[in-house]
Amino acid sequence: MNVAVYIVAVLVVVTGIYFSQKEKVEQGNEISTEEEVLSESDEESDAIVEEKEIDIITPTKKPTPTNFPIPTQSPQSSNLSEYKYPNSQIVSSSSNSLSLESSDNSDSITEWYKGKINSQGMNVKTFVTTKANDKVLNKLVGADGNKEIRIEISKEDIASFVNISVTVIEN
């Protein structure tokens, strides 16, 4: 009995949808022979038209281009000296790179450089640390719009010192 009621209800709904869609299609197919331009109609409408003031701003001065600041290059050696690990000795250096040696633990050195990169507000940071059988290879990279810092910390399994390579690339 319930099944029959459900079937009848579904049929009523489907029939209603069918006929309402059919009416819409028939109304859409009617062709109007009366031409009327809606924007120029003489009929009065009941619509309320609001008037709003629009402020038009006209430039009083001719725009002038602004000067762009020209970046100045500071000496590379002063930039590199800030990346010298405190308890390390300089093995070699060039205009944008520094090779160091330290007897400190490689984890301590890595953490110091991570802090250095974070303190400079670098927005791109990559820290990869690898340690296997007392062999260490840690690579740290920090970059912002002006410079990129690459630091490699390595230690061989039989070595008593840690090698540190620092490269600063100014853009």
Question: Can you walk through the features of this model?
Answer:
With 171 residues, the chain is an alpha+beta fold. 28% of the residues lie in helices and 28% in strands. It contains three helices and six strands; from the N terminus they run ααββαββββ. A six-stranded antiparallel beta sheet has the order 1-2-6-5-4-3. It is elongated, with a radius of gyration of 38 Å. The model is unreliable at 73-78 (pLDDT under 50).
Key features?
171 residues; alpha+beta; six-stranded antiparallel beta sheet; single chain; 3 helices; TATA-Binding Protein
In short:
With 171 residues, the chain is α+β, with helices and mostly antiparallel strands.
**Helix content range of the residues, please?**
25-40%
Strand content: 25-35%
**Biggest sheet: strand arrangement:** 1-2-6-5-4-3
Tell me the name of the CATH class of the domain at 77-170.
Alpha Beta
| Global structural class | alpha+beta
Helix count, per DSSP? 3
The biggest sheet amounts to: 6 strands, antiparallel
The assigned CATH architecture of the domain at 77-170 is 2-Layer Sandwich
Number of DSSP E strands: 6
Q: What is the 3D form?
A: elongated
In the CATH hierarchy, the third-tier topology of the domain at 77-170 is known as TATA-Binding Protein
Mean pLDDT: 77
> What is the ordering of alpha helices and beta strands?
HHEEHEEEE
Termini Cα gap: 82 Å
Low-confidence stretches: 73-78
